[in-house]
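Appendix B. Raw example, untouched.
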Amino acid sequence: MLITEEYRQQNKALHEDNAAYGTSGHKYADAIRSLCAAVGSHDILDYGCGKGTLGQALKLRISEYDPCIKGKDDAPEPADVVVCTDVAEHLELDCLDDVLADLARVTNRVLFMTICVVPARKVLPDGRNAHILLRPMHWWAERLSDYFEWVSYQNEGGTFIAVLRPKA
């Protein structure tokens, strides 16, 4: 299970009520352009795409998946470059392994992932901080290593940025 129905409804409501929720993808457009050039492919899946600002910034037609956005909630097809930005900290702990396995399933060549490790400024309708899975970077590194091999990583303030390959 990638997301419980109760939590899907919480996120769906936040998307509908807050125009700024799910809009961070565009910040990584330059990094994704560089990554695509490095792997020689523009076959991109934005996994957890929110309002789709990455595709808009890239000015490319990309595949988008978000279980909380109607029309973007069908199971995604694999792509060469998978982008998962500002998503992991929103995952339910009980669903984490299923989501990481699904990310490995859809990643043909490389995964670009960011994980925020500090509280969000946004709050879910039920009053919880929108970042429900706050863990330190070393915790995330261990979990990701179960499914992926490391290409590179960096820490930018409270955000962990990783480039990974699925394990063979």
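End of appendix B.
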